[in-house]
Amino acid sequence: MLKRIYLILAIVIPIVMLSSCGTRKNTALSRNYQAFITRYNIYFNGDEHYKQTIKEMERSYEDDYSTILFMHPAEAYSNPKAPQPQGNFDRSIEKAQKAIQLRSIKKRPKKKSGKGNDPKYKAWLKRDEYNPFLHNAWMMMGRSQYLNGDFLGAASTFYYTSRHFSWLPETVTEAKLWQVRSYCALDWLVEAENIIIRIKEPELTNNTLKELYNFSFANYHIKSHNYEKSIPYLTNAIKYAKGSQKTRLNFLLGQVYALLGKKEEAYQAFKKAGSASSAPYRTKFNARIKQSEVYCGDDIESEVKALKRMTRYDRNKEYLDQVYYAIGNIYLSRQDTAKAIENYILAAEKSTRNGIDKAISQITLGELYFQLHSYDKAQPCYAEAVPMLPETYPDYAKLKRRSDVLDELAVYSQNVTLQDSLLRLSEMSPEEQKAVIDEIIRKLKEKEKKEAEEAAREEYLAQQAAQGSNLQNNSAAAPNTFTLNTDKSWYFYNTATRNAGKTEFQKRWGSRKLEDDWRRRNKASFDMNDFSESDEEEEETSETDDSASEGQTEASELTNEEKEKQKREQDPHYPEYYLKQIPSTDEEKITANDIIQEGLYNMGVILKDKLEDFDAAATEFDRLLTRYPDNIYRLDTYYNLYLMFMRQKKYSTAERFRAKILHEFADTKYGMALRDPNYIDNLREMENIQEQMYAKTYEDYLNNNNTAVHDSYKEMMERFPLSDIMPKFMFLHALAYVTEKNPEGFKSTLKELLERYPETDITPLASSYLKQLAQGRKLESSTTNMRGMIWSTRLTNDSTALANGMTDSISFDLNPADPQLFVLVFPTDTVSSNQLLFDIARHNFTSFVVKDFDLEQMNFGQLGLLIIKGFDNLEELNHYRMVMKADKNLRIPRQVRPVMISVKNFDLLLKEGRSFEEYFRFVEEKTVNDTHDSVLSPDIYGTEEESLQELPVQETTPELTDTPSPEIPDVQTPVPTQGKQTPAPATPVPATRPIPLPEYPEGSEGDDPLLDTP
Questions:
Q1: What is each CA distance from 402 to 360, 389, 407, 1001, in whole angstroms?
Q2: Are 273 and 247 in contact (CB under 8 A)?
Q3: Nearest by Cα to 728 from 712, 745, 743
Q4: Which of 324, 417, 823, 839 is most buried per CB count within 10 Å?
Q5: In a 3-state reduction of DSSP, which class is residue 892?
Q6: pTM of the predicted model, to two decimals?
Q7: How far apart (Å, rounded) are the C-alpha atoms in residues 513 and 374?
Q8: What would the pLDDT profile of 353-375 be if each residue is shown by its tens digit?
């Protein structure tokens, strides 16, 4: 009996103890029990997985040594184009979440008598969590989210931890430092700075906090490009780092020193990175290369010899381009340009990877050629390198722009060189021609033989390498021979036919840049034939088809001898191929000279305007005028030379060309402009004056003062006929004819605009109107000039619906209790949708901790929408707008307009393909019936002045200052309240610069209010 009692007690006592240790009770026993279980059961497994995964991530990550390194591999998640790290921390996150869900103690303990006035006891009772170990689970979850690349989620977790575990100062400090790291990874540097500057050194009570503090501050300064300030923090962070991470930070320190020009310190930092026992060979090699780049010793020969020795090792075979690039850098640092170029050329030749390393050496070589004004040599370097560079590469936009300019210049340069050579050959005797051609064929065959031998050697080495690898056992089923496509039925598979077509084209037109309308001197997005009602185009097409069919018939009737001759004319291994290209008739020689004239003129313009190499530009212009005194580019050449010499302050030379224009071309637009001796002074003042004139002209247009619009246009023609914004004046001048019911004036002005300015932002719109008129559309008979048309853009991309139009009315349900949307409407050509999305997302994250808002983007032609969702009613939406208005860090472009609309009404707009204008019109009509005596109270709507500042205004960015952005009326959505609605006044925004033209969304010309249906 006694044994049975002991057995029962042995079973019951543990059960009673365990039941008293659950999370629903808060006792010392339950707290310690839950902490023990959390630590050694759930947390332990997650922590072990975390340690193993982060160690493998840091060890296996392949850094991109061509750019500045990330301080930690996890930061690479912020740049999808960077090498991505390996490792998944989901298991650690799951364990942390499980610990929080199962072991959190939220219940407050029973109050103890006698401690009611104890401040510490009171604070203890106010805690949000009573499991003394659970903060570790929160921190592990945040770190794991960060290492998984979920930086926003990690920042939220660390923010929660810092707020809800305030009684643990070390945990709060650690959470804030991790929050800084998360913000730095997101490039939210202002937010990072606001946190880290408030953390003081006395708060860093252990090595973990010191390591995090130095790491975070170094990361912040590097992201901010304050490299000098980052050095002490980075140096301290290295002291706490271990293994692969220590090597990585040493390499980064060397890069920072190199950027600051501290070569000796950089050399030593790279040396430490390369000599680390944990560094893989790839890191050692790149560290050695970087050492040579910052070498500052007096004797460079020893360094050069050391690098050349590296070329002998087989393991460096794929890195030869980097070795020669480093040697070139050493010579360049000593101003030995010739040897630097020699080694950069070797770097390009030895490159086998065709990656960013080759691109960097090519860019450096191209830069040297560019500085030496050897543009023909610089062009292929840039052309090959730029496509291999990531868009994040420093000065990528500048390099891309320079490459495009050099490509354009090379086309004309090659044309001039080729046609000059062909004309010289045409003056030779047949024997001399044959000798030159034989030499060309001999060099071609030698080149092909050398390339074939090199290809065979590479193939042999590749086969030997494959046989020696451990993959040969798995290659039994792999083919051991490869056959190229031998089907020559398609044009581009037939080399001979392709070469013949290219030869014939260049003989007639010269080399051409790949672009639309390549035959036109002035490129445009229109064709004057589109505005003509004649059948000339059809007749021309018919004639072309006839001639093509005749050519095919003749080709089919060729004899075997003629076919053999034709074949030889298409093969560069035969003299006939070259003889056919030599101009023999007067007509062919005239064509060759025309190509040369065009090339010389365009080379001069490109050198002058895009490369600003005035001496080279003057040389090309002089060649053109000397060789072809009566060329068709003479007027434009005189004017370019006049402007160029005025810019160089060579006034006497510039005056000579001004006199030539006045004497030979007095009646042209240049002649009329240059009659004024103060023309250059007018040019300097033109920008400010024309902006004021355009602002007034646009205001006159909006006020239906068409006479003033026409007068302003005439004044501009007299004072500034060469103004860049002249097309906009012409367009307003044309639009003013619409309400004057003068279709001929409208049509003729638009035609003149297209002829004079074929490449402007107005061109597509003017062209579309003329096309519509040619198809029978008539001008709309309104007596009021058009306003901004962004609101009339229909929310559909269905071209059929746009063409058909909708005349039936539509009814909306204005219920403030319905779920609402906040829609930011903007023109896509002047507002960056991605930047706007980023700014709003950041505002939501920093302003609302609990509430989450979904963001969605839509585009309809040139109308962009950013839709903010998650408002249960109008009251919540109004609160959101007030918070947005109070956020001083939020800067929204002035072109963005807010619209508050219910989900139901917005869905109806999308379903019906309607416009915001129809929605506003419905609200306005309904308001007439049930309006108040005045507009809604200012606390909801704001005064007229406040409506102009409803959202913070962003300063104009440099990208937007060149082209005025479309002005959009500040139409605010009428806000229904208590069943009665009143629309806000539509107040135009005052402009501080030329007011842009009304917005005409792409694709809307088929439903344009300017034109009636026929």
A1: 15, 14, 9, 32
A2: yes
A3: 712
A4: 324
A5: strand
A6: 0.53
A7: 20
A8: 667 777 888 888 888 888 888 88
